[in-house]
Each structure stands twice: as C-alpha cells, then as structure tokens.
From TrEMBL:
<feature type="binding site">
    <location>
        <begin position="460"/>
        <end position="469"/>
    </location>
    <ligand>
        <name>ATP</name>
    </ligand>
</feature>
<feature type="binding site">
    <location>
        <position position="197"/>
    </location>
    <ligand>
        <name>substrate</name>
    </ligand>
</feature>
<feature type="binding site">
    <location>
        <position position="552"/>
    </location>
    <ligand>
        <name>ATP</name>
    </ligand>
</feature>
<dbReference type="InterPro" id="IPR005615">
    <property type="entry name" value="Glutathione_synthase"/>
</dbReference>
<feature type="binding site">
    <location>
        <position position="550"/>
    </location>
    <ligand>
        <name>substrate</name>
    </ligand>
</feature>
<feature type="binding site">
    <location>
        <begin position="561"/>
        <end position="562"/>
    </location>
    <ligand>
        <name>substrate</name>
    </ligand>
</feature>
<keyword id="KW-0479">Metal-binding</keyword>
<feature type="binding site">
    <location>
        <position position="298"/>
    </location>
    <ligand>
        <name>substrate</name>
    </ligand>
</feature>
<feature type="binding site">
    <location>
        <position position="217"/>
    </location>
    <ligand>
        <name>ATP</name>
    </ligand>
</feature>
<feature type="binding site">
    <location>
        <begin position="493"/>
        <end position="496"/>
    </location>
    <ligand>
        <name>ATP</name>
    </ligand>
</feature>
<dbReference type="InterPro" id="IPR014049">
    <property type="entry name" value="Glutathione_synthase_N_euk"/>
</dbReference>
<comment type="pathway">
    <text>Sulfur metabolism; glutathione biosynthesis; glutathione from L-cysteine and L-glutamate: step 2/2.</text>
</comment>
<dbReference type="GO" id="GO:0000287">
    <property type="term" value="F:magnesium ion binding"/>
</dbReference>
<dbReference type="InterPro" id="IPR014042">
    <property type="entry name" value="Glutathione_synthase_a-hlx"/>
</dbReference>
<comment type="similarity">
    <text>Belongs to the eukaryotic GSH synthase family.</text>
</comment>
<dbReference type="GO" id="GO:0005829">
    <property type="term" value="C:cytosol"/>
</dbReference>
<feature type="binding site">
    <location>
        <begin position="357"/>
        <end position="360"/>
    </location>
    <ligand>
        <name>substrate</name>
    </ligand>
</feature>
C-alpha cells in the first residue's frame, strides 16, 4: 500500500479502502492485505498504521493532515491527451474563449482562442465554500453602506484628508465626485448598483489542520470572469459526464460539483437597476476598454439581458463616449448617439444604467478629458455601476481601515441605519480578514513592521487589475525607495498560507501543441454578488450571484487571469 495514498484516504474518508470508522480505529479492507487495522489519533494529526498481513503486524507511522490530499488524481498519458482534447474543444464550442492577441482588434472578429483552463476542478473545503457564499449578503450590505458614507470616504480616500492627497488616480476620481456634490443640482441619481466579487483563499498555516477562509480583496468595479466561470464549471461537469475522469478519484462525483449560475445572477442585478430607473425603452451602457480581448465574458451578460429581460445593451469606450454621450442640462438624462453601425437606429438612446468594464485603472484615462467623461456619466440620472464613491469604497485602503477598532460596527451596528447586524455576523466577517496596516501608521512603525515581517507580507497600492503588488523579499528595497509622503497610499497585508501540495493540469490560452502542464497550484475563490442601494428608505436590495475559481502556479505571486498569470478553474467540494 502506498503510504501517501493512505494518508489522503484517512483524511477524506471516502475512498473505497475505508469500510468502517469506529472511534479511533479505522477498519480497512484492501488487497493484497487480507485484513488491515489502523489506529489513528486524529486530534494530534498523527496516525500509526498496523498492517496485518498473515501473523506479523507491521507498524507504519505518518502525519495526517488535509494537505496530503493528492491532487490532481493520477491519470495516464493517453487519458491526459483525451482530457485536453475534450476540454479545449468544449471551451471553443461553448464560448469559454478570448479574442486572439492583436494590436488592434478587427471591427468584427473572425476567430477566438480558448481561455486558459484547468483540466480538473480544484478541491475547496465544503464548509469554507458555504461560508463564503453565506457571507456575500453581509459584504454586499457592508460595501453599500461604505459607498453611501460621504464623510468616511472623504476622510479615507479624499484629496483633502485621505489617499487622494498622494495617489493621483484616487484624487482624480474623488475630485470628479466632489465637483458634482458641490454643484447646484448635486448628485441627481441617488441609487447605486454594485456588481461585486469578494475574493478569498483557503488559509492553512503549517502545523494547522483546520482550514479557514481569508479574504484577498473586495472588488467593486469591473469584476470579471463571472460568465466564463460558469462555462468553466460546466466544462468540468462535461469532462466528468463523458469520462468519469477515468475513475481516478472518488471525489469526482456530480454531487461534489456545486452549480454556478453567474450569467443569470449578474444579469439580474443589472436588470434590477434598469427597472428601478423606470424607463423600459432605455438601454444599458457597457463602458469597455478599446481592443478588449475578454469580450465574451461581457457578451454573455448582454445575451442574458436581452433574452430574459428584453433589455438592450450599447457598448462604448471612453473615446466613443467623448463623441456620443450627452447629458440634458435640465433633466440630466444621459443619451448616447452611437457613431458606428452597432445598432440599427442612429438616434440618441436614453441610458438607464452605466456598467463599467473599464475605468478601474489610470491607463483607461490617458488624458484629463477621460476623467471628465467619467464625470459626465456620473453627473447624469443614469444609475452608475459603480458610482465613483462605490469605486472608491473598493480601495485597498478601505479594506485596511475596516480592520481598525469600531469601524465595522459603524457600518453594521449603527442605530441610525435601516437594519443592524448581530455580533455573530460581525465576527463572521472579521474571521475572513488577514492582519493589515497602513505603511504610514504610527510614525515609522508601519514601515518598521513591514521590514520586520517582509517574508510574510504583501504590500498593495490603490490599484486594481493585477501586477501592482510588492511581495516578500522585494519589500525592503521597495521601502528604501518609497518617498515618505507616498506611504499613506500603501497597505501591508499578511500573506495567506494556502494549502501546500495541491496540483492541477493547466492549459494556457490557445496553448496549441503545448498541451497541459502539471504543476503545483494555488486557487482563489471569488463570490459574486450585487447590490442596489441609495434610496431614501436606506434599504439595500442584494443577492449572491455565483462564483469563480482562478488557479495559478504555486510560484506566481499574482493571480489575474487576464494578466496571464492564472487559469479558469472550478470547484470539487471536499470534506
Ligand atoms: P488586484 O486588485 O491587483 O487584483 P489583489 O489584492 O487581488 O489585487 O492581489 C493580486 C493577487 O495577489 C491575488 O490574486 C493573490 O493571488 C495575491 N495576493 C494578494 N493578497 C494576498 C495575500 N494576503 N496572501 C496571499 N496572496 C495574496
Ligand atoms: Mg484581485
């Protein structure tokens, strides 16, 4: 019997080898042994196994922990080739795809490449998955409350007191918002729509055998890969249905593949905003990046909006909008006159909701005029997804600020609010946080602590979209070069200790003959949710809306799929 096999069998208790568990004694039946008896001490995570073959029992000792789950299961070369072929053809035929790399995308695409994907779903502890889903409602409400707390956002993100003082991008956005607050008409649309994704990793520090769920970040703008993650989960379901994954693991059962309906879930959020706007003939505006390759992830939302809600979508870049957008000075209605042949009628159409799949990075605003276009959209009656304050609420600095004493209570247990939450709810949220602090906290202390704990830390600026963070041994030299003034724009965060020894077969986007690469991996779970809020009653209408798993090679710090560091994955639940 293979030692490591047994290790994982004991942990998971589902293998055919296990026939009975009585107190601390496992009764196993397996050839070539007639009878095998195992004594385990689960509390200490140590087991001693007595293999009784004939008359001579032979003791074998090992360590037991969840980390020893063998993943991916073992398959042969030819099975691997089959899975790769089935996965990539499924991806190409079901729209789990990107546009190919091109300097300028053609006006109408003629080809696609499959998205980066994993052949096996990745194991996520069932309890942690349930917890993440249940937490989403609380997080939806929390971020809705933050976005409507003007004083808080001015203090933390503003240009006079907060991060906006030293971070130009944050400052620009905040200034646009402030200008609108200060004008005579003020903010004319009280409602905001959030399309959120809360990202987590499983935390399992060495020596511990109880995994927990820790939040990486909370996204309030352009949260992507909702609909492609649904396709990715369906692809894994298909691989199971067609091959049974060759009987390689008892975990691979349909019951362990949770359903994922992100497309309809997210479209429902946009439809709720559209309905609240109250003009059925209006359209939803998708603000997109020029030469976007991840268009299909966005198109699936459009199809759902049209098919299930009869809502039309117009796609425009900031540059398109410079020519096409108009806000009526009296009614504040936003109208778009499309320049291209995107839609049949060349007349101006009213916009109910502005959904940003661009605008989260300074690269999307190459000139000051681009910030003015953002301001123009925000000045209108159209519901913004997200509004500028909701985008600011998603700042890493806000995530850190929430961990300060009393701040979470201010948003979730304040008697002035429409509803308050229980201590248990607050504890559940708090239990997902890693330690964080600002580099400018307590004089030199923030930086000194960062130097001291560098090996266990990531530093993050106020940016989204991957590739901006500083990790571990890059931290001390980075701190040497960081002007003191800029410290307040950075937070330090303890690294989440993800389970070791898990692997997968990863297939790069359009990998061609390269095929699947087996490597040790780290998975990141994202839970989608939406929230519509800001009305006079103070209520937050919200829902959880499906999930995403991105998986990256263990040696990569970053995890963005679009940035090319990771693949789309899905979940096999394990106990
Ligand atoms: P971005 O807004 O650029 O996506 P994130 O906070 O999500 O920034 O960080 C990018 C990536 O860095 C994550 O996807 C994750 O892989 C890694 N990462 C971030 N914070 C942590 C952490 N505390 N522990 C471990 N990995 C982290
Ligand atoms: Mg991220």
């Amino acid at each position: 019997m293979d030692h490591e096999d047994l290790d994982s069998d004991l942990v998971l208790g589902t293998d055919t080898l296990l026939t009975q568990l009585v107190d601390d004694t496992l009764i196993l039946t397996s050839p070539p042994f007639l009878y095998v008896q195992t004594f385990v001490n689960t509390s200490r995570g140590v087991f001693t196994l007595f293999v009784k073959s004939g008359n001579l029992p032979t003791p074998v000792t090992g360590t037991m922990s969840r980390q020893s789950l063998q993943w991916p299961p073992e398959i042969s070369e030819s099975e691997l080739d089959t899975l790769t072929l089935l996965a990539t053809t499924y991806a190409l035929s079901h729209g789990l795809v990107y546009l190919p790399v091109a300097k300028v995308q053609p006006p109408a695409p003629t080809s696609t490449i499959h998205a980066p994907l994993s052949l096996f779903p990745s194991p996520i502890p069932r309890k942690q998955f349930e917890k993440a889903k249940n937490l989403q409602s609380l997080y939806n409400v929390l971020y809705a409350r933050i976005a409507t707390d003007v004083d808080f956002l001015d203090r933390v993100m503003g240009e006079e007191q907060g991060v906006g003082q030293v971070d130009e991008f944050t400052g620009q956005l905040w200034r646009q918002w402030k200008r609108l607050r200060d004008r005579e008409a003020g903010i004319v649309q009280p409602l905001h729509l959030g399309m959120f994704r809360s990202d987590y990793m499983v935390h399992l520090p060495e020596g511990s055998d109880s995994p927990s769920l820790k939040q990486v970040e909370f996204n309030t703008i352009s949260s992507s890969f909702g609909t492609l993650s649904q396709q990715s989960a369906q692809m894994h379901g298909y691989l199971h249905a067609s091959t049974g994954y060759f009987g390689s693991s008892s975990h691979l059962t349909q019951e362990n593949f949770p359903p994922n309906t992100t497309a309809s879930g997210l479209a429902e959020g946009l439809a709720a905003a559209h309905k609240a706007y109250g003009v059925p003939t209006a359209k939803i505006l998708f603000v997109v990046q020029p030469n976007e390759r991840n268009v299909f992830d966005q198109r699936f939302l459009e199809y759902d909006l049209l098919e299930k809600h009869s809502i039309h979508v117009i796609r425009q870049t900031f540059d398109d909008l410079a020519k096409s957008a108009h806000v009526d000075p009296q009614t504040h209605v936003l109208k778009i006159t499309p320049q291209s042949k995107q839609i049949a009628e060349p007349v101006a159409v009213e916009i109910s909701t502005v959904y940003f799949r661009a605008g989260y990075t300074p690269n999307d605003y190459p000139t000051p005029a681009h910030y003015d276009i953002r301001g123009l959209l925000e000045s209108s009656r159209a519901i913004q997804c997200p509004s500028i304050p909701l985008q600011l609420a998603g700042g890493k600095k806000v995530q850190e600020e929430l961990t300060q004493p009393g701040v979470l209570e201010q948003f979730m247990q304040n008697p002035k609010l429409a509803t308050t939450h229980s201590r248990e709810d607050l504890e559940a949220i708090r239990s997902t946080w890693m330690e964080m602090w600002s580099l400018d906290s307590d004089g030199e202390n923030g930086v000194d602590r960062a130097r001291e704990h560098a090996d266990n830390l990531v530093l993050k600026p106020q940016r989204e979209g991957g590739g901006n963070n500083v990790y571990k041994d890059a931290i001390p030299p980075f701190l040497d070069s960081l002007p003191e003034k800029e410290r307040s724009a950075w937070i330090a965060m303890r690294l989440i200790a993800t389970p070791k020894g898990l692997g997968n077969y990863l297939v790069r986007a359009g990998a061609g003959t390269e095929g699947a690469v087996k490597t040790n991996v780290i998975s990141e779970l994202g839970i989608f949710g939406w929230a519509l809020f800001g009305g006079e009653d103070g209520k937050v209408k919200e829902k959880e809306a499906g999930w995403l798993v991105r998986t990256k090679g263990e040696d990569s710090n970053e995890g963005g799929v679009a940035a090319g560091f990771s693949v789309l994955d899905s979940i096999v639940l394990v106990d």
